[in-house]
UniProtKB/TrEMBL annotation, chains A, B:
Pfam families: Dak1. The keyword Transferase applies. InterPro entries: DhaK_1, DhaK_dom, Dihydroxyacetone_Kinase. It is an enzyme of class 2 (transferase). This is Dihydroxyacetone kinase subunit DhaK. GO terms for molecular function: phosphoenolpyruvate-glycerone phosphotransferase activity. Its EC number is 2.7.1.121. Signal peptide: none annotated. Residues 7-330 form the DhaK domain. Keywords: Kinase, Transferase. It comes from Methylophilus luteus.
Length: 332, 332
């Protein structure tokens, strides 16, 4: 393992210090317990908080800022943050209008966020994201995994909260987007967790892991490496199957997110995007919004995920609204 | 080699089609000859054009848009674009106020851009970037290589051009920024050029290439892998030595750009940033502006570069001005 680190135990704190310094206009980072908040605390709105294991940057700390999250709680790499982090973050950003947690559906995260909410003296609700249609139940999950759709949920719920909408409305929008979003990932290589020091799984030059999780969890199956268009075609088919299974509209406007898992060049992501957009258009979906890049990563995995969110007027409005975070920025 | 490609010969075109579709609000892509322009052609300004081999995305096509480039000419991977691309791009975006080319100092690019300018029927000038202080003369270069400082030149010259400044003023700002910027890169792994199908160089788990070029060209020397802080310390020392050699100010405000070469996680880039910012502050430089992420890549190389630009009021103003491109966006 070759990584830019000094010591695996200090890596997260050292990186967060850099993040805080580089974005000092935007965020503040607290340690013990560790959480990230906006530099300017928001008033008169629901506080929107997310968190999870590190290694998925820019998610979640990179999405703290105006129009998106009020706070993020980063755990150690691929490890849930602890309830004391969530409680401290909630205390710091709560503005009298309740707290909405956005939690990716992994057993450790769910358990710790639930423990935090039980101790929380404020009105609260939780949106669990579970957009990964690859598998049901996995290494760290009961039910479906929350993956790149989480970025769309955080963006749009953050926007709605900014308007002064109440907790129930924010939760309803988050749940709706989660329902209307389907994702699937594929790995060409494993990621390497710094504390482990070696790749999470072995995979040959001739294989891909179809449906891989963002921690390197197994997907649907090990498949033969093949041309990009054939891989993308199977990924889009899985998404379309999921949309049909959820009895969602078979046509209409979509947001297409092609996400890099860490080590995949942008050139390849745009190639994937083109094939996915083309196949989805053939099926009657119009790509009305797009996002291509590294938005939720699996450390240094070569791989990509495709997410399709079925838009409606409300989701589109909140996707388009101004946002100013380290990881997503427009309109400001 | 495992990559998301269908055919190495079609990879660039397929990727550019995806880029054009994903950013249809922002850019248009032409083929044969291949170039990228803004969707809304700018009027009454110097046309700013860059280009170079592909594989460095988001550079350069990702920097076409308001406040930055008018056009970009992407060559095949790590291969200079041809003069007909540059001429066609210049014809398309010239608005009667002359054309400024921004060219990274590689022999192939220099030769082809010079050939284009000889045939160009418009007033023109060229800024050559050569911010890499690692080596003088290299695999593809006579003199110093142009690397991440090119992003700063493109951003600031693009901003100045937007104000209606004349060709000479735009060239002068570009040359000034190039002089005031020093960069150095380091590789943990090689990149793999798709057409070659195997890594450009061999490097063991115990080694790093200090001063690597963005095409995997040799750097200063092969060194032993060591903790990030020790690597960063040597990189910052090289930059400080270069600043002194250029007789530039030994204190003042700087822009610190920590750039990922393709496969390095953001978490590691922020860790590098923190150490670099801390060392530069000890030496009397105040980090006034920061950029951390993948802005000029070497396909899928694990590695990073550090760039320091000595700011002045003019550079800072043009760095801060609004920009709307696929790769850099703020204020819009």
């Amino acid at each position: 393992m070759k990584k830019f680190i000094n010591n695996v135990d200090h890596m997260l704190a050292e990186s967060l210090r850099g993040f805080a310094t580089a974005h000092a206009d935007l965020v503040e980072v607290q340690f013990e317990p560790t959480f990230v908040t906006r530099k300017q605390k928001a008033q008169n709105k629901v506080a929107v908080i997310s968190g999870g294991g590190s290694g998925h940057e820019p998610l979640h700390a990179g999405y703290v800022g105006k129009g998106m999250l009020d706070a993020a709680c980063p755990g150690q790499v691929f490890t849930s943050p602890t309830p004391d982090q969530m409680l401290a973050a909630a205390e710091a950003v709560h503005a009298g209008n309740g707290v909405l947690f956005i939690v990716k559906n992994y057993a450790g995260d769910v358990m710790n966020f639930e423990m935090a909410t039980e101790m929380l003296p404020f009105e609260h609700a939780t949106v669990y994201t579970s957009d990964d249609c690859a598998v049901v139940n996995s290494t760290y999950t009961t039910g479906r995994r929350g993956v790149a759709g989480t970025v769309i949920v955080e963006k749009c719920v953050g926007s709605l909260a900014e308007t002064g909408a109440d907790l129930a409305a924010c939760k309803a929008l988050g749940d709706k987007i989660n329902l209307r979003t389907s994702s699937i990932g594929v790995a060409l290589t494993s990621c390497t967790v710094p504390a482990a020091g070696r790749p999470t799984f072995d995979i040959s030059e001739a294989e891909i892991e179809m449906g891989v999780g963002i921690h390197g969890e197994p997907g649907r199956r090990r498949e033969a490496m093949r041309p990009a268009d054939a891989i993308v075609s199977d990924m889009v088919a899985a998404i379309l199957h999921d949309i049909a299974a959820k009895q969602l509209p078979a046509e209409g406007e979509i947001l297409l997110l092609v996400n890099g898992l860490g080590a995949t060049p942008l050139m390849e992501l745009y190639l994937i995007y083109q094939q996915a957009a083309s196949l989805l258009a053939e099926k009657g979906y119009r790509v009305a919004r797009s996002l291509v890049g590294n938005y939720i990563t699996a450390i240094d995995m070569a791989g990509a995920s495709i997410s399709v969110c079925l838009l409606d007027a409300e989701i589109k409005q909140h996707w388009d609204s101004a946002v100013h975070t380290a990881g997503l920025r427009w309109g400001i």
